[in-house]
Specification:
This protein has about 270 residues and is of the alpha+beta class. Helix content is about 45%, strand content about 20%. InterPro entries: RT_dom.
């Protein structure tokens, strides 16, 4: 069926498939499945991840940029090739270390994740030619900052309307997964914190930072926001539900909330430009 679809496109004079097609994501998974398998298990590759046409690879120190490029080219389906533009790719070589037990780190923000690669000199490696790799994955700072902003906007909206139920719902929406019906693809989709970051390592420093931020906003007595909250105080129960949510466990257990389309639009309106 896919072959017929692509043949029809070619017969119509099209090159590739139309942009924005709901089927595109599925097609990329089908056609690139073999490449994913081959590269992820190839020699020297410690970590491989792909989102549609964006790829991240963490490899051993002896793997070069031309080597990685060649592996991708060889395994791509016929008719596809890597984007030749230099600003579409980044290659970072961690320098060799001189001191036993020391580490070099390189951090990369990619698709909402923060990848931190450490190069660790093995004590058993006396000739210092081989190094171990340690990869940790967390949520990027920009995504954490975005949730902080949305929380502050949720507080401000509560100060305007006094609706504690909406405040709690917005808090859960910021920090949980949720499902919604996409009219374009005519199917239910999942989104939100618990759905978007399945690769992060636990415990997550980013989630701990976010939890501390929530707690500090509600417990501070010096900020202007705290002074305004004192005039429209939350009930003790609702304050505790926000301040003492175990965010790391909440995300790790993939907690979801359910709202209908009308409710989602209403809740998200408070974050319209954030």
């Amino acid at each position: 069926m896919l072959d017929k679809y692509l043949a029809d496109l070619e017969a119509a004079g099209a090159s590739g498939i139309p942009a924005g097609l709901a089927l595109n994501g599925t097609l990329s998974e089908v056609f690139l499945l073999n490449m994913d398998k081959e590269i992820s298990r190839s020699e020297g590759v410690h970590f491989y991840a792909r989102y549609v046409d964006d790829i991240v690879i963490v490899a051993a120190p002896h793997i070069t940029e031309p080597d990685l490029t060649q592996r991708i080219e060889v395994n791509l389906p016929t008719g596809l090739m890597p984007n030749p533009s230099q600003n579409k790719k980044a290659f970072q070589l961690l320098p060799k270390k001189e001191n036993k037990g020391s580490t070099n780190r390189y951090a990369l923000d990619y698709l909402g994740y923060k990848f931190t690669v450490s190069q660790i000199l093995s004590e058993a490696n006396h000739d210092k030619t081989l190094n171990a790799r340690k990869l940790t994955i967390d949520i990027s700072k920009s995504k954490i900052d975005k949730r902080k902003t949305r929380f502050i906007l949720s507080i401000k909206q509560y100060l305007r309307d006094g609706n504690q139920d909406d405040l709690l719902d917005r808090f859960l929406l910021i920090n949980s997964g949720y499902r919604f019906y996409d009219r374009n693809s005519e199917r239910w989709l999942s989104s939100g914190m618990c759905n978007s970051y399945p690769l992060i390592d636990h415990p997550s420093p980013a989630l701990r930072e976010l939890s501390s931020f929530y707690h500090s906003v509600l417990s501070s007595r010096s900020s202007n926001l705290a002074a305004r909250l004192a005039l429209a105080p939350l009930t003790r129960r609702n304050r505790k539900r926000i301040q003492y949510l175990d965010l790391c466990a909440h995300v790790q257990k993939k907690k979801y909330v359910g709202f209908n389309e009308q409710k989602l639009v209403h809740l998200m309106k408070a974050w319209q430009h954030a």
